[in-house]
Amino acid sequence: MQIKKNKLGLLKDHDVTDEKLYLNRRQFVSKAALLATGIALPSVASAVPVIEAPEPKYTDLLTSPFSATEELTKYQSIVSYNNFYEFGVGKQDPAKNTTQFPDKSEPWRVVIDGECDSPGEYDLDDLMKPLSLEERIYRLRCVEGWSMVIPWVGFSLADLLKQAKPNSKAKYVEFNTLYNPQQMPGQQSTVLQWPYVEGLRIDEAMNPLSFIATGLYGNDLLGQNGAPLRLVVPWKYGFKSIKSITQVRFVEKQPKSSWMIATPSEYGFYSNVNPDVSHPRWSQSRERRIGEFLKRKTELFNGYKEQVSHLYTGMDLKKHF
Ligand code: MTE
Questions:
Q1: Model pTM?
Q2: Looking at the domain assignment, is residue 88 inside a domain?
Q3: Does ligand 1 come within 6 angstroms of the Cβ of 86?
Q4: What digits encode the pLDDT tens for the residues 281-298?
Q5: How far apart are CA 1 and CA 154, in angstroms?
Q6: N or C: which end of the chain has fewer CB within 10 A?
Q7: Which among 93, 152, 241 is the best mutation to test ligand 1's pocket, defined by most ligand atoms within 8 Å of the CB?
Q8: Cα(140)–Cα(142) distance, rounded to whole angstroms?
């Protein structure tokens, strides 16, 4: 499918994968119902205005050997072509509906608990104090068949997790997004089970590639990208990269993610990028890099095979999709 642009040169909802294909029937009907009842989501007809990249706030970021050297996706695309169902299921809904999110009058609190010796509830500022911010340029491959290259700002997930001192029962890490249907009108719909939940195996979480982003393009994250902090797991499909996190829990049993609950036959726990394992309704062998005309081949583990393939030695990746 050809990349179509509107008058402002902005990407439109249907540029990459037909929405009917990537939303299952229940979600599609739910979106229609949401629009029909007019639940606090403004019209989808108006386009997102051009959002200029602000002057970088962070100029002395550490650089990373894990950073990709490919051309960066344009700032405008990164902040206006999003998936954040708490703010609507259209690609432009998150940019339009997060202008007041997160609520700056309240400090953002994060709970870290479960199987660990130092659980706690922290203000994000306190949580970040001992951590050094760095830039990580990662490829992001969405399960819908599009990809971007994003210069994230943040810190390694392992550095955060180690502060809580996980114990020997901590086999997995579960992440929750904020649950607040007033601030997140999409949570008034049944499109997914809320709050949005994701999980990683502890060794995946501790892998040096796993990252918590608090910014991009040298600035703090905007609401649509998961402010004030979100996960980035670049070798997995983008839906594993949970946004606006309020809870990190060490658990013994494999967590059930929102997508596994919604459509277990389509979304598994691992969700590693794999061109040889098709989604039941479309191939994953190629992808559209946003901003490019021709599709490119999708790489196993999104090109991060060297760093992560050892995590899956002996596992049947078709079975553990
Ligand atoms: N996190 C929450 N809480 N809610 C969501 O709907 N969407 C996921 C992921 N994280 C999502 C989420 C999906 S499907 C993708 S592809 C990425 O966020 C998109 O991140 P981006 O909008 O910053 O590109």
A1: 0.91
A2: yes
A3: yes
A4: 999 999 999 999 999 999
A5: 34
A6: N
A7: 241
A8: 6
